[in-house]
Amino acid sequence: MTERLYLEDLQVGQRFACGRHALDAEQIKAFAREFDPQPFHLDEDAARGTFFGGLAASGWHIVCLTMRMIAEKVPFAGGLIGGAAEITWPQPTRPTDVLEVVSIVMEVTPSRSKPERGMALLRTETRNQKGELLQIFTAKCVVPRRPKAS
């Protein structure tokens, strides 16, 4: 991983390409069996008769994959510590999708009461190979400020 970034290193509009992940039906079903056992995540035939009209990944599965990709590519000093988050899923994620994740710094705010840190608002978009938006994950992250030299 690259050099760790402190609050002072972040700029509005800064982008982090977080990589790609090829999804398949077995990954979708394995996650669902353990964490979200619903018919539209577990069985192609049962999924056809649902709202999704076919096998779809759990939104929580996409959150987990996205988080792993962010954690590997967004080098905040102190790690990615969430303060608040909002998630939307504009459309289902399918077994043939190749996920591509990009995080964008939307705001950088030093703390007034805690001078050693601040908050960065990150908007992370997960798209498929067609560029279709599958998930928007907006999170306020606690980011340390650069330590002062002694």
Chart the SSEs and their pairings:
Layout (H helix, E strand, L loop, with lengths): L14 E8 L2 H11 L3 H4 L1 H5 L10 H15 L7 E8 L9 E13 L6 E11 L5 E12 L6
Antiparallel strand pairs: 1-3, 2-5, 3-4, 4-5
CATH level-3 fold name:
Thiol Ester Dehydrase, Chain A
Overall helicity: 10-25%
Count up the helices.
4
Average pLDDT number: 96
CATH class: Alpha Beta
Structural class by SSE content: alpha+beta
CATH superfamily: Hotdog Thioesterase
Give an overview of the whole structure:
This protein has a five-stranded antiparallel beta sheet with strand order 1-3-4-5-2, with helices on one face. The chain is built from four helices and five strands, in the order βααααββββ. The model has no long low-confidence stretch (mean pLDDT 96). The radius of gyration is 18 Å and the shape is elongated. It has 150 residues and is of the alpha+beta class.
